[in-house]
Design brief:
This protein is α+β, with helices and mostly antiparallel strands and about 270 residues long. Helices cover about 30% and strands about 25% of the residues.
Amino acid sequence: MRNPTPAQQGTPGGIWLDGRLVCKEDPRVSALSRGVLHGVGLFETMRVTGRRVPLLELHLERLGRGCRLLGLPDPPDDLEAGVHAVLRHTGQDDGVARIVVEDGFRMVTLDPLPPGLRRERETGIQLPCMRFSWSPVAVKHTARAVLEWAEREAEGETVRLGSRGRLLETTRSNFFIVRAEGLETAPTSVALPGIARRLVLETATELGLPVRHRAPRLSELESWREVFVTNAVRGVRPVVELGGKRLPTPEPGGILRELQQRLDRAMGLRS
């Protein structure tokens, strides 16, 4: 009989902290770090598939930009090794890897995939709309109190409304609509430059599909053909209801499904 893996034994140790694996009960960070005192830190969440993180390089690139914007030290060279160390230790094939970088520490964790993800990707999601202030949009920072509040109020992921009813992004994803003339999504001046967003825009270019960088308005719903959101863990998810209004059903051979399949391949997902 084969010996059980650490994950099968339930042995802790699925956290990489400052260059070494530690038990989940043992991570210790400085109480005087800017992250602890002021919420100054960055994070990246990444899809793991087949014990790989296919988009890791893109996440590390964005993390480096964020560190420079917030005045944090550049991400250390051993972060990629930390991700691989956690994957080897846990033996987990699929999940969500998370990197956290603050001025006093760097950490990698691994968690299961969100429950209900397959259903969301296949049948779509319902999203409420809310107005709330959120900045800065250029980085994924750890000070998420406003987003946590919004999701508690909405009882889940919600779309952030801007001025004049503009649909900017959700609390977890970038927001897209499909019109007869192409795609439309909020510019990065008012929405996070998501990794999945970037790949969708690159794919649109390959397909010769025009993209308008403008936040859509709910009042223009009648001209929409399909609606979807993107992020680098969940991929492309159709939106079937928005602010209590029913939306067009995704077309079997439509743009949404084509983009979903192509993004899945880039993320290394099995169909």
